[in-house]
Amino acid sequence: MFTGIIQAVGTVAAQQPSGGDLRLRIQTGKLSLDDVAIGDSIATNGVCLTVTELPGDGFWADVSRETLSLTTLGGLSQGSPVNLEKSLTPQSRLGGHIVSGHVDGLGEIVSLKEDARSWRIVVRAPYELAKYIVHKGSICIDGTSLTVNAVDGANFDLNIIPQTMAETLFAHYSPGSRVNLEVDVIARYLERLLQGAGAANPQAGIDYQTLADNGYLDTRT
């Protein structure tokens, strides 16, 4: 588990294709690895990766074909910057929100505009994820925990303060950049719970009748 508070921006140092997937070496820069062991997790652009080797200035991780196909990691090249966060400990402050490191889909940067000292950024989410993104809710973009300022269909608006702009990948984005999205996990669990016994049905969804059956609508006449 993670908080979405980026601790450092690292760099892709090497990529080694291996049996159809990829070994990835990340140089971690100012991120201390003194408390990291083989088998620990480090979120890399919001993707939970398992440390397989610790060469001293960073770590190696295996990236499966599944992860390569569903995230932006497959599009990285040597020298690409990446957001990094070590996993939570019982002593950690939960400064962002609960982040699993499991990417739900890819978003696209639509626009970036200066707003006083901050930046206003519009991101387009995949259609199937739009229902989980709400005004003043939480969203994780390339591992960064952010608050949604406004929602317009599948587009949503963010305010990026100078600290976030300086300490994460946001300064590297431009219109058309693809980003990893993780929606609020609570929204996903709530949807599943509301489906009740119908959750086993692949076509199950939430409609007026589902809400009425679960006491969320007053159906008295």
The major β-sheet equals: 6 strands, antiparallel, barrel
CATH topology of the largest domain: Elongation Factor Tu (Ef-tu), domain 3
Number of domains: 2
Q: Do you know the CATH architecture of the largest domain?
A: Beta Barrel
Low-confidence stretches: none
Task: Summarize the entry for a quick read.
With 221 residues, the chain is mostly beta strands. The chain has helices at 65-70, 162-167, 185-195, 208-213, and strands spanning 8-18, 21-27, 41-44, 47-53, 58-63, 81-86, 105-115, 118-124, 138-141, 144-152, 155-160, 178-183. The protein folds into two domains: 8-86, Elongation Factor Tu (Ef-tu), domain 3 (Beta Barrel); 105-183, Elongation Factor Tu (Ef-tu), domain 3 (Beta Barrel).
Topology:
Blueprint: E1 8-18, E2 21-27, E3 41-44, E4 47-53, E5 58-63, H1 65-70, E6 81-86, E7 105-115, E8 118-124, E9 138-141, E10 144-152, E11 155-160, H2 162-167, E12 178-183, H3 185-195, H4 208-213
Antiparallel strand pairs: 1-2, 1-6, 2-5, 3-4, 3-6, 4-5, 7-8, 7-12, 8-11, 9-10, 9-12, 10-11
